[in-house]
Specification:
binds 1,4-dihydronicotinamide adenine dinucleotide, cytoplasm, ProC C-terminal domain-like fold, proline biosynthesis, alpha/beta, about 10% strand, Pyrroline-5-carboxylate reductase, Rossmann fold, binds (2S)-3,4-dihydro-2H-pyrrole-2-carboxylic acid, amino-acid biosynthesis, P5CR-like_CS, seven-stranded mixed β-sheet
């Protein structure tokens, strides 16, 4: 991939169709990198979401798609899979010249290309830690996207965290199951660890602090270490000790197998979304 020496403040105007959670995470990243709010155009039909964009970012969002979108060199599609087709019908005439980036789960680039009348299209699967610059985004580019287009999208999404390009679109369903939905798995474990801490006599705040710091520390150790997670786990697990008691119970209860099965459900749901809402 080519890299660009241009600074983020020279990014071309970017439009967002849908101004909810995911759009806000990306917009926050762009503003942190010095992009002026006046170069960000947002279409957002819901008043409460428009008010949040104004309050958080000083952006006056449009209520519907219109000629103002023609300024955008890149259009980011951040609507729900269920509403993508209708939103595309309203905006397509104003955005045909642009490069497109979809963050919608499941919806294939074949469907999007048919709706938009252009195949200059990258599909991405980000995650909500993008809100704090710690996101993980999987990306797939159609062959119609050139190196400059990929570089532009890498600069936009790179402002929210790490990037991983995949060479087959189908692999984005696996990305969705791991890192797209993954923050919710982390939060579920945090909820359980906090509940357990309270049961054992700590305050909810104390248990929350211990659990969050343990996820942060464990993830950082795994990221920096040359050892596999399996080896790192074994180092915590003293023979006949406390960790052994907990891990043995999880293994007897087939927690890893159930966890893997749950992730396959997420992958299957991504495939269903494409079938349900991609026509
Ligand atoms: N929340 C997450 O963790 C992730 C979400 N995604 C994907 O991002 C997309 C957006 O998700 P969120 O931001 O969480 O949803 P959201 O509900 O926060 O945002 C979607 C926004 O689109 C607006 N909208 C509805 N109809 C519209 C239309 N016709 N034109 C323009 N805007 C319209 C809604 O008012 C809403 O504010 C989804 O397709 C989802 O699959 C991808 C990765 C992670
Ligand atoms: O749950 C969803 O469908 C979206 C995609 C990944 C995270 N949220």
């Amino acid at each position: 991939m080519t890299t660009s020496s241009t600074s983020p403040s020279t990014l071309p105007p970017v439009a967002f169709i849908g101004g909810g959670n995911m759009a806000s995470a990306i917009i926050g990243g762009l503003l942190r990198q010095g992009m002026p709010a006046s170069d960000i155009i947002v279409v957002e039909p819901y008043e409460a979401a428009r008010e949040a964009l104004q309050a958080n970012f000083g952006i006056a969002a449009l209520t519907e798609a219109g000629p103002a979108l023609q300024r955008a060199a890149l259009v980011v599609w951040a609507v729900k899979p269920q509403t993508f087709k209708d939103a595309a019908a309203a905006a397509a005439a104003h955005t045909r010249h642009a490069l497109h980036l979809s963050v919608a789960a499941g919806i294939t680039t074949d469907s999007i290309a048919a709706w938009l009348g252009t195949a200059r299209l990258v599909r991405a699967m980000p995650n909500t830690p993008a809100l704090v610059g710690k996101g993980m985004t999987g990306l797939y580019a159609r062959p119609e996207v050139d190196a400059d287009g990929k570089a532009l999208i890498a600069r936009v999404m790179g402002s929210t965290g790490q990037l991983l390009w995949v060479d087959q679109e189908q692999k984005l369903d696996a990305v969705t199951a791991i890192s797209g939905s993954g923050p919710a798995y982390v939060f579920l474990f945090l909820e359980a660890m906090t509940r357990a801490g309270v049961d054992m006599g700590l305050t909810a705040e104390q248990a929350h602090q211990l659990a969050v710091a343990t996820f942060q520390g464990g993830a950082e150790l795994a990221a920096r270490s040359d050892e596999s997670p399996e080896v790192l786990r074994q180092r915590v697990t003293s023979k006949g000790g406390t960790t052994h008691a907990a891990i043995t119970h999880m293994q007897e209860q087939q927690v890893p197998e159930h966890f893997i099965a749950a992730m396959r459900k997420a992958e299957a749901r991504a495939q269903e979304l494409a079938a349900e809402f991609g026509r």
